[in-house]
Automatic annotation (TrEMBL):
It is found in: Membrane. Pfam families: Sugar_tr. Gene3D superfamilies: MFS general substrate transporter like domains. Belongs to the major facilitator superfamily. Keywords: Membrane, Transmembrane, Transmembrane helix, Transport. It is a multi-pass membrane protein. The keyword Ion transport does not apply. It comes from Drosophila rhopaloa. GO terms for molecular function: transmembrane transporter activity. The chain crosses the membrane at residues 40-61, 135-160, 213-230, 237-257, 263-285, 297-319, 325-344. This is Uncharacterized protein LOC108043479 isoform X2. The keyword rRNA-binding does not apply.
Length: 346
């Protein structure tokens, strides 16, 4: 499922490239009154179309039968198992299988407290066990790791295209220049006489989305390598390797002067944390009871998105003034996350 993040990274710039290169960028169709259909509206619709399709597909998926049986909803739980059985085997549940499911429900049923309390209080009471022993240490640690992963993969990643475009738009000789110098050290050209009738214009040109295609392709390849590695490598080894690799490429990004090395150092700094977000989310469920897994995953992903938002703001406001120090701090974060991840029972 998470692999399709890479396809999304190719899908969006793919449509943008089509619009920019084929002349579709210049049209205007009157719709209703002053409302017109312009390229940016059509492009926005095409970008949200997969999400709309996914929304309606998700409406047809049932709730987890294990969860339904644990909370005592026997009828829906058995109906869901019937649906799964028919789709997988073409046959209905046998009487013996139904009896096994009822015995299983008696064994794992969880008593839920119901009372006259508002919705927010009910949510708080349901989530509080995650912040008490024996789950609190592991869960808080997992949330902190998720925060770091979101900051790197999405907070820094949202600036990836702008950074690469700025590098590609840089004029003059870039040989021997580090990533930060290419981005932020102004080019000193020949001094020319000023012209009274010269009007400065904003340069918003773009050289293409090739680097975005590379990032999306790397995501797809790494997701498949990660999936294949699960058959022969322990998850904790994969976590630590990915974070150490991300940190290594972050340190390289500070010093390397080769164009290709700069590109792939930034790509792997972003991609390695991105691919293990899903893996950590799945591993988080291993030490949390079934009836609390949905809440645990939602809260941890909330911290991941919080890290993405804070990371995007911090990168945009701070990297220009202290680029090398900022990249150094970014490169250290995966090592901190790796230390915290070593504490988790993965």
């Amino acid at each position: 499922m998470y692999m399709f993040t890479g396809f999304a990274m190719i899908y969006c710039p793919g449509w943008a490239t089509l619009f920019l290169s084929s002349g579709l960028i210049e049209f205007e169709v009157d719709l209703v009154g002053s409302l017109t259909l312009r390229p940016w509206r059509l492009l926005g619709f095409l970008n949200i179309l997969p999400g709309v399709v996914a929304f309606f597909l998700l409406l047809h998926l049932p709730e987890s039968p294990k969860f339904l049986l644990m909370i005592g909803d026997t009828q829906r739980g058995l109906a869901t198992m019937e649906w799964i059985c028919r789709n997988n085997t073409g046959l209905p549940l046998s009487a013996e299988q139904v009896e096994h499911l009822r015995v299983y429900q008696d064994h794992v049923a969880v008593k839920r407290r119901k009372g006259k309390q508002n919705f927010l209080r009910s949510m708080l009471n349901d989530a509080m066990p995650l912040f008490r022993p024996p789950f609190v240490g592991y869960f808080v640690c997992a949330c902190l790791v998720m925060f770091v992963l979101g900051l790197l993969a999405n907070g820094l990643g949202i600036w990836y295209t702008a950074m690469r475009n700025r590098c590609n738009m840089r004029q003059g000789n870039k040989e021997g220049m580090t990533f930060c110098r290419v981005l932020f050290v102004p080019e000193i050209g020949p001094i020319v006489e000023t012209e009274s009738d010269l009007e400065a214009a904003c340069n918003d040109s773009f050289l293409g989305f090739n680097d975005s295609f590379i990032l999306g392709s790397v995501y797809i390849v790494l997701y498949n390598l990660c999936w294949l590695s699960l058959f022969c490598v322990h998850k904790k080894v994969m976590f630590v390797f990915s974070l150490v690799a991300s940190s290594t490429f972050g340190f390289l990004l500070i010093f390397v002067t080769n164009y290709t090395l700069q590109l792939f150092s930034l790509v792997f700094l972003i991609a390695f944390p991105g691919i293990i977000v899903g893996l950590l989310g799945g591993s988080l469920l291993g030490f949390v009871p079934t009836y609390m897994r949905a809440k645990a995953l939602c809260i941890s992903l909330m911290w991941c998105r919080c890290g993405a938002a804070i990371g995007a703001i911090v990168v945009g406001s701070s990297i220009q003034d202290n680029c090398e120090l900022f990249l150094l701090a970014i490169a250290i974060l995966p090592l901190i996350a790796a230390c915290m991840e070593g504490y988790l029972p993965l």
